[in-house]
Amino acid sequence: DIGGINMRGSKVIVFVIEANKSSRSDENYIRALMNSLYSKEFQIKFIYMNGKTNYKKDRVTKEIKNYKSIFKPDNFEVYVVYIYDTDDHNRDRDCIKINNDIKTYCDSKKYFHIWFHTTIEEVLLGEFITRSKVQESKKYLENVARGKTKIDVRNLKNLEYHTKSGSNFCLIIEEIKKS
Q: What is the pLDDT along the chain (179 residues), one digit of tens a residue?
């Protein structure tokens, strides 16, 4: 343990997620996936965008720099991964633009990006959630941890951005794992 930092693995993934810090719904889903599929392989941290349009705001970029400065001196490999819902990518021009802008930004910074089509809830729960997203995400995290909910990784290994109820989550984490 270095200054309160768990030494589980030498790779740190900093997930930059859409949600706000008080909600933590996206964080709960990502923790469930990481704990279940990649247990103890990575140290994980979260930065909250408070909406995906804030992907390159000063606050977000400063937090990324801060995590890099914390972990780099201790020989950790730091990987920045943006995670976002594609939302109504097929019909909404603003949505198409912001998704493409995030991808271009990540590519230019050598960051990874993970998408969920159309939402993380749709991919993991099989439905679009209108009720309490926070409660649903907590229930999912608990059920995965207890083995009550099994994760179908087939939905998480899609190359194609437009795959209904799909994501590239496992493909990206596997790429980081191999690097």
A: 444 445 545 899 999 999 989 888 999 999 999 999 998 789 999 999 999 999 999 999 999 999 999 987 778 999 999 999 998 766 778 888 999 999 999 999 999 999 999 899 999 998 877 778 889 999 999 999 999 999 989 999 998 877 788 999 999 999 999 99
Cα–Cα distance, 46 to 22 (Å, whole number): 12
Q: Where are the alpha helices (DSSP H) in the chain?
A: 25-37, 58-71, 93-109, 120-125, 133-145, 169-178
The reported pTM is: 0.91
Q: Are 157 and 49 in contact (CB under 8 A)?
A: no
Token pair for residue 174? 């596997």
| Cα–Cα distance measured from residue 164 to residue 95, given in angstroms and rounded to the nearest whole number | 16
Q: How many alpha carbons fall within 13 Å on the CB side of residue 92?
A: 9
